[in-house]
Amino acid sequence: MLTGPGHAYRCRDECVEVAVNVPDAVAVRDSKNPDGPVLRFTPAAWADFRRALISAPES
Fold first, then answer.
1. Got the DSSP string for 1-59?
2. Which end of the chain is more exposed for a tag (fewer CB within 10 A), N or C?
3. Counting beta carbons within 10 angstroms of the beta carbon of residue 2, is it exposed (0 to 12), middle (13 to 18) or buried (19 or more)?
């Protein structure tokens, strides 16, 4: 599940936080490891990734 500022999602074990307040980037990190590594995407790449997740068939 993806969460972010202002989102009230409940998440159990596999969550990421998504920050869109980074200039010209979308930053993603493991919510259980806030001091760990951060992935940075361009807004266009992030939008493509989200579209792919949303359109993927559930398994």
1. -EE-TT------SS-EEEEEEETTEEEEEETT-TTS--EEE-HHHHHHHHHHHHHSPP-
2. C
3. middle
Give backbone dihedrals phi and psi of 42, rounded to 5 degrees, phi first: -70, 155
pLDDT tens-digit map of 20-41:
888 899 999 988 888 999 999 9
CB 33 within 8 Å of CB 16: no
Cα-only R_g, the chain = 12
Which tokens in the block code for residue 2? 């993806």
